[in-house]
């Protein structure tokens, strides 16, 4: 009798656990469905513009903009201490994206209306990066994917083609894309990712700027010379990455 009673208790306990698991699963599914239902969705093409007025900073629910290779979702939470509270997140070819807006911004209302460029990867919010914080902690040099590197506001994707690299830099630093006359090659490809460095005045060669590079990645505004990285007893290494191999002409 006692054994049968214990078996019954075990069966009831198992049934309760299964019931709780089902309820929790339904709650999560319901929450996701509710989030999707409360998100306004639209689509855009590369080259389009997204206008946001940070002066008025009208509260806006989650808005998702679908592009060719993914989407950008953002929301506006209103004004706090003369700053517009703005959050956004991106996904690239991730249909099961969790929808977390991992970048939070406090944009001064004095900036007024800003136009953001739409790309095939999402909306480019580089214009307000100084007022934003993201939970991405990976150093640029450890980013191995060219698309991820391109989306990071603090990183620059270096290309086998010097011109492509400088076009990427100009775009992210916001001083205009250099002309075709700077192109030194016809084809390239992703080389690696590094921390973004923006020159103070891109129209003037700056020693401090050029010294950040070596022969292999010397930007077009600087001059380069093949200087071995090490010479001992008249024998030099077979490379061009030595000190001052990239300099101001």
Quick description:
The protein has 249 residues and is of the alpha+beta class.
Task: Break the fold down into its secondary structure elements and pairings.
Blueprint: H1 2-37, E1 40-43, E2 49-53, E3 60-66, E4 70-80, E5 83-92, E6 103-108, E7 113-119, E8 122-124, E9 132-134, H2 146-151, E10 155-159, H3 162-173, E11 190-195, H4 207-210, E12 223-224, E13 231-232, E14 235-236, E15 246-247
Commentary on this structure:
This protein starts with a helix and ends with a strand. The chain has a domain at 38-135. It has four helices and 15 strands. It has helices at 2-37, 146-151, 162-173, 207-210; strands spanning 40-43, 49-53, 60-66, 70-80, 83-92, 103-108, 113-119, 122-124, 132-134, 155-159, 190-195, 223-224, 231-232, 235-236, 246-247. The longest helix has 36 residues, at 2-37. Strands 1-3-4-5-6-9 form a six-stranded mixed beta sheet, with no helix packed on it. The protein has a three-stranded antiparallel beta sheet with strand order 2-7-8, with no helix packed on it. A two-stranded antiparallel ribbon has the order 10-11. 23% of the residues lie in helices and 30% in strands. Mean pLDDT is 79; it is low at 25-37. A hairpin with a 2-residue loop joins strand 4 and strand 5 (83-92).
